[in-house]
Amino acid sequence: MVFNAHNLKSWIPNIQDGNIAAEIDLRTDAPRYMVYWDGKLLKFQCQDILDEWTENHVGFLIGCSFSFESALTLAELPPLHAVMQRNCPMYRRNNPLCPAGVFTRDDVRTITRPYVATHGEPIAWGWDAVRDLGIADIDCPELGDAPLTADEKPFGSMMGGDIVPVFWGCGVTSQGAVIRANLQGVVMAHAPGHMLLLDVKEDEVLK
């Protein structure tokens, strides 16, 4: 099944369905995929999901922190992982999640404009947040690349210094929910750091 403008439905008020992507195939257009079977990871960073996708599957497009990285850079606050051309580190937090049927989701703070449509504001920041979120070692993320400073030192070596860690919710949270729910059947998702690119631009989302 090829996904085109007629298949996509937008929940963003100022973005029409057909403007999300003129032509798109969710099975092949992400750089890498993850495949889960009965809540367990079956394939890691595969190039497509042509064999797994069936006409009974439904796709969801979730916002990503990459959507506001250019705005941070313009404000002279570039994320270090972007400066270092590395995948952003992703951590599992110890905070309980709010139930939603068989799934759970992050109880992130009330999301403020202007990026409410794609991601939202940070859920925590500062070195105390590392402890509060239950991150055992900031230099050892569960997913993505280990964070480095601009001079390629371990990020944790800067604890207490001028560099401040900032934490956002993550689209990979939904994959963790699939695992915790032990969801039966095949579930497919983008691999961490390998998101789908659409036709919608940042300034269109912020209108």
UniProtKB/TrEMBL annotation:
BP term (GO), one: glutamate metabolic process
Describe the family membership recorded for this protein in Swiss-Prot or TrEMBL. Belongs to the D-glutamate cyclase family.
* Provenance organism: Blastomyces percursus
Q: What is this protein called?
A: DUF1445 domain-containing protein
Q: Return one GO MF term.
A: D-glutamate cyclase activity
Q: Which InterPro entries match?
A: D-Glu_cyclase, Putative_hydro-lyase
Sorted UniProt keywords: Lyase
- Provide the taxonomic classification: Eukaryota, Fungi, Dikarya, Ascomycota, Pezizomycotina
**Superkingdom of origin organism:** Eukaryota
The record, for Gene3D superfamilies, names: PSTPO5379-like domain (3.30.2040.10)
